[in-house]
Amino acid sequence: MPRCSTTCSPATTRCCRASAWAPLRSPADLTTRVTRALVPAMARHGVRRLVAVSAGGVGESLDRCSWAVRRMVATANLGVAYRDLAAMEATLAASDLDWCVVRPVTLVDGEPTGRARPVERYGLFSVVRRADVAAFMLAAAESPSLGSRAVMVGSG
Prior knowledge:
Blueprint: E1 7-8, H1 30-44, E2 49-53, H2 67-75, H3 78-93, E3 98-104, E4 106-108, E5 117-118, E6 127-129, H4 130-142, E7 149-154
Parallel strand pairs: 2-3, 3-7, 4-6
Antiparallel strand pairs: 1-4, 5-7
Helix pairs in contact: 1-3, 2-3
């Protein structure tokens, strides 16, 4: 199977090619299905906290994206994945969990820099390192309250 490109959004890993127009390799509603099974399982086992990864441009954050990013979501297979991620986020929002959804801008490889932080805009050249997103998610999981919110994360 082809490897994912080193520069992609979380949703493009479903395409598993550098092109946002490549055929999907997983079900179009994968994250929604998983979340709908996970939320009641967490309740049954007394687990209250969840940190999940989504993508910059999902839900209302699309309004804070550059024209180019909005166009890609509208015309490429990214739209399929983004609709799935939006449904996942809605499932979490309707739950009683203490949750945080992290919406990274364009992901790149590299050593952690410690620069991941909430951002207001997703520009054409916005990037964040995968390692920094992981550290941000761990810090969110360890915080006293996740705040049941979605946060767009970048490095600049």
